[in-house]
Amino acid sequence: MTFKISNLKINLLGTIRDIGYKPIGWTEKKELNCVRPLGGDYPRFHLYVREEPEAVVFNLHLDQKRPVYQGVTAHSGDYEGLVVEKEAERIKNKLITNN
Description:
- This protein is of the alpha+beta class.
- Helices cover 24% and strands 35% of the residues.
- It has two helices and six strands, in the order E-H-E-E-E-E-E-H.
- It has helices at 12-18, 82-98; strands at 2-6, 22-26, 32-37, 44-51, 55-63, 77-78.
- Strand 2 and strand 3 (32-37) form a beta hairpin.
């Protein structure tokens, strides 16, 4: 699920930590790669964030389990559904309230 929040003035790394995510690096597309485990390593929310001139773009999904084959990024992920929608709403509410 991809969503944008316009006119969001944030310190990206600090804000990601404030909403409960752990930054794990940057992608080649200049997106911040972050996760929020739901207990152990999996399942976990997986979030890619990038800043644009007028908005911050969030790309969210739920990783159900770790990739099966080493070196392969394919996994069992949910990109929509109630759980992902609720997490997107939690993020939006927290960021809009704190901004």
